[in-house]
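Renewal narrative, Specific Aim 1. Our central claim is that a sequence can be written position by position from structural information alone. The example that follows is taken directly from our test logs and has not been curated for this report. It begins with the structure tokens describing the chain, in the order in which they were read.
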């Protein structure tokens, strides 16, 4: 390839392939044969142009065909499957969902434990449809309830990799939370080949059949990992659970033992990558093996092959996790490039490896791990090396040769000139000290200068590399994780060496165990290093202002920043500080700029200006009620005309209890409610309201208090409740004002009137549900009634007390339970729309059929979050728009 791309021909090919795969996500109606024909025609056009020496035309035609191939690969990966694939059976309705199905399959991965249950990945071989069995392929993820006599820490005693099993389960399709900003769990499972999830009530419903369908090498790797867990179990029992969990994560990538606080500590310090088996591990292992082989005086070729074998062995030990497998393929390509071309460009090798991996697995383009791994290496090659070779090395190289007259530096550039000046001053200083003292002072001082220059070169190089990586990765981290770590370039200077020492000593302990040698010393060193790693990370994360949560940047802005950095670096334009500064300013704005935006929006002139900018010609001074899809729970976001945000309830996991010392594995407040608020750029929460202290309403509020600046938290429960006490304590610890509300309280949010109708504090004992906070909002000709989990008794009392109860929009009480929403209550409210927040396939049968019939009979339109996802009602008091995440705009008009 001519011109600037001559040394890196795979890079434009990779970019075109990635663009094609990205395009495939938007292609719904297509002719596959037509796309193939278009690709062939592009290749033919390129070949004809090449024959006529029209190289640019030929190049563009070839790259266009590569992009079209990416589109075809993406479409094939999404829509193409065999007749036996379980997705084909689902299309034909041969595989029954949401009912018990007999199946036959093989356990394809190591069995994991989650909150006492077993997570089993099954490669399906067949299922029973009617009176006969049908063959099928594809994977399902089963959650198997542990038996009462089992030790949940040792699931392999019951089910293990390679077992052929037969049993019954209730299957359903994986489903995302249908809200803006939601995590794509369906895509994540699809990249693992999992298209069904199921539930088995007891492990006794599964029969282990004779025969083994696993592979010996994978079984050996699982045994090795299990042996390491047993080896570290005494460490955990000795009160050092965190150190044992960190060692397991570092050595074999097992993060199941990491508690939430440890994860957050590493994330806040920007060092979580050391706990993930990735390029750092591969680089360290490769470097260590190369040093050993160099000491043994092996030639480079066999050394590299043995290093590749060592990485392959380690990849198998950690179960060929995607991150380390990608590094393995890139290293193999590096070896091939060194053997074939001697001086292959590292960026071209990285591009070639990524090109091959995306050709085999197009879905990896959307994998967070792939994006972070690829961009981190790109950052090092394009920006870090440029900083190092263009500034730091020319600055310190002359000083490293201080006193050596045979090593003089004549490189051009301001940094080299400054470095020569430093060297001259160092030599003059050493000579002057020798003249005033003893002659031995001069060589000692010069040696000190040389050593200092070498140390500054290594330390500064690490800092520049870390800074370069963070500049590239922070936009992606903000997009995926809503977290900015400002301290990470500094914290990595200490944490990465500590992690390397921990990894080295841990591997030595494992090897000593395997060789039946004493392993207490290396294990003790590994434990000490793990403790130092945790303590240093905790210290960095506790420094004020070193990290923050941030709003979700748009995909366009994230891509634009990366493209700006990429183009500036590849074309080696001058003033590289310009895109770096632009990226840094954008990140600062992302973390803090929305507070300035809030101040702007609160000003009267700004609001009147923005009110004239609505595309529909309607004023922007709207009240918005957003009923989020949180599964079996409630969460309502209220956005007032002055852009103040309230949150009423935040969902939660129903089975969690106040006695749990750790938050549940799925924190609804973190992964659902917070992500929605970040996606819409909510700057802060003026008020968080708790309708009543049940986990499916209160569980997510802990995350909101932690992630957002909340001014006040309100609750209505008059009695003592353990969960409420925990929430109030957490609020006070974060400087949030807790305050009880009761019937009769009123708030004026600009033109919106808010009235609390329940609970009444009169000494009467009521159930927690009947003490729910009930709120009525009025805005012009619009009114809404939010009822929490109110039941029949509470509905009756509210109906008798409240003068005004009529509401156009009703949040149906208690998820549509038959114990609420009676005819007499509906006669008073007379709703036009009724929103029901309930989980799909929930065990309670919510919403009850009779409740839906009552609502329809009273002229209300039922809207279910389980079907429609997030339901948004927007009004200016006279006109309204009703829309949902799944269906878009359902209604709009005037009252």
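The sequence written for that structure reads:
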């Amino acid at each position: 390839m001519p011109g600037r791309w001559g040394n890196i021909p795979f890079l434009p090919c990779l970019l075109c392939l990635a663009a094609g795969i990205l395009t495939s996500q938007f292609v719904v109606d297509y002719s596959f044969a037509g796309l193939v024909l278009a690709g062939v025609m592009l290749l033919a056009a390129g070949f004809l142009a090449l024959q006529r020496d029209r190289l640019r035309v030929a190049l563009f035609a070839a790259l266009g065909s590569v992009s079209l191939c990416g589109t075809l690969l993406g479409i094939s990966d999404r829509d193409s499957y065999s007749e036996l694939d379980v997705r084909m059976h689902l299309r034909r309705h041969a595989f029954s969902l949401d009912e018990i199905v007999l199946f036959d399959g093989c356990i394809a991965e190591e069995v994991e434990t989650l909150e006492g249950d077993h997570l089993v990945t099954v490669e399906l071989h067949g299922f029973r449809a009617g009176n006969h069995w049908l063959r099928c392929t594809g994977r399902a993820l089963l959650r198997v309830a542990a038996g009462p006599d089992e030790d949940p820490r040792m699931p392999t005693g019951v089910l293990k990799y390679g077992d052929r099993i037969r049993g019954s389960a209730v299957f359903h399709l994986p489903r995302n939370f249908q809200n803006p900003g939601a995590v794509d769990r369906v895509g994540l499972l699809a990249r693992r080949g999992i298209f069904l999830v199921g539930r088995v009530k007891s492990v006794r419903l599964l029969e282990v059949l004779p025969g083994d369908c696993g592979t010996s090498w994978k079984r050996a790797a699982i045994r090795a990992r299990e042996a390491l867990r047993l080896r570290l179990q005494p460490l955990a029992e000795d009160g050092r659970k965190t150190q044992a969990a960190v060692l397991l994560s570092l050595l074999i990538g097992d993060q199941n033992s990491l508690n939430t606080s440890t994860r957050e500590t590493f994330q806040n310090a920007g060092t979580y990558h050391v706990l993930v088996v990735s390029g750092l591990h591969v680089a360290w292992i490769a470097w260590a093996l190369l040093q050993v082989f160099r000491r043994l005086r092996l030639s480079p070729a066999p050394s590299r092959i043995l290093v590749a074998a060592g990485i392959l062995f380690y990849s198998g030990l950690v179960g060929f996790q995607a991150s380390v497998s990608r590094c393995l393929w890139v290293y193999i390509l590096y070896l091939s490039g060194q053997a074939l071309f001697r001086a292959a460009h590292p960026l071209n090798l990285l591009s070639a490896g990524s090109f091959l991996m995306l050709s085999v697995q197009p879905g990896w383009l959307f994998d967070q791990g792939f994006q972070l791994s690829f961009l981190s290496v790109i950052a090092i090659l394009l920006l870090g090396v440029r900083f190092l070779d263009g500034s730091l090395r020319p600055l310190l190289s002359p000083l490293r040769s201080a006193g050596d007259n045979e090593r003089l530096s004549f490189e051009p550039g301001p940094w080299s000139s400054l470095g020569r000046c430093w060297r001259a001053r160092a030599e003059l200083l050493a000579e002057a000290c020798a003249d005033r003292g003893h002659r031995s002072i001069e060589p000692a001082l010069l040696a000190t200068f040389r050593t200092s220059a070498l140390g500054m070169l290594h330390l500064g190089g690490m800092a520049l590399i870390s800074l370069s990586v963070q500049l590239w990765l922070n936009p992606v981290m903000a997009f995926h994780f809503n977290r900015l770590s400002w301290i990470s370039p500094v914290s990595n200077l200490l944490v990465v060496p500590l992690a390397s020492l921990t990894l080295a000593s841990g591997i030595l302990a494992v090897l000593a165990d395997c060789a039946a040698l004493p392993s207490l010393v290396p294990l003790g060193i590994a434990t000490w290093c793990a403790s130092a790693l945790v303590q240093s990370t905790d210290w960095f994360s506790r420094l004020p202002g070193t990290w923050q949560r941030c709003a979700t940047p748009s995909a366009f802005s994230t891509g634009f920043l990366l493209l700006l950095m990429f183009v500036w670096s590849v074309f080696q334009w001058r003033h590289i500080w310009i895109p770096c500064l632009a990226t840094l300013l954008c990140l600062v704005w992302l973390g803090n700029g929305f507070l300035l935006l809030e101040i702007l929006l609160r000003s009267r002139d700004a609001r009147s200006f923005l009110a004239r900018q609505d595309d529909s010609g309607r004023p922007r001074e709207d009240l918005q009620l957003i009923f989020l899809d949180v599964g079996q729970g409630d969460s309502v976001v209220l956005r007032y005309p002055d852009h103040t945000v309230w949150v009423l309830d935040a969902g939660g996991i129903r089975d969690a209890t106040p006695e749990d010392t750790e938050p549940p594995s799925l924190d609804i407040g973190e992964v659902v409610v917070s992500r929605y608020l970040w996606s819409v750029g909510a700057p802060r929460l003026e008020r968080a309201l708790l309708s009543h202290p049940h986990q499916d309403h209160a569980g997510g509020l802990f995350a909101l208090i932690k992630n957002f600046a909340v001014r006040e938290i309100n609750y209505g429960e008059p009695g003592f409740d353990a969960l409420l006490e925990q929430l109030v304590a957490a609020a006070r610890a974060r400087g949030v004002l807790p305050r009880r509300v009761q019937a009769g309280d009123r708030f004026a949010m600009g033109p919106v009137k808010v009235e609390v109708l329940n609970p009444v504090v009169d000494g009467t004992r009521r159930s927690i549900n009947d003490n729910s906070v009930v709120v009525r909002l009025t805005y012009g000709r619009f009114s809404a009634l939010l009822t929490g989990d109110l039941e029949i008794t509470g509905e009756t009392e509210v109906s008798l007390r409240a003068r005004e109860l009529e509401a156009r929009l009703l949040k149906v009480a208690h998820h549509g339970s038959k114990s609420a929403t009676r005819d007499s209550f509906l006669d008073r409210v007379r709703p036009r729309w009724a929103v029901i927040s309930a989980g799909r396939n929930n065990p309670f049968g919510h919403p009850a059929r009779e409740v839906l019939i009552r609502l329809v009979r009273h002229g209300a339109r039922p809207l279910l979050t389980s079907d429609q996802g997030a339901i948004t009602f927007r009004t200016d008091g006279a006109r309204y728009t009703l829309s949902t995440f799944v269906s878009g705009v359902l209604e709009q008009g005037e009252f």
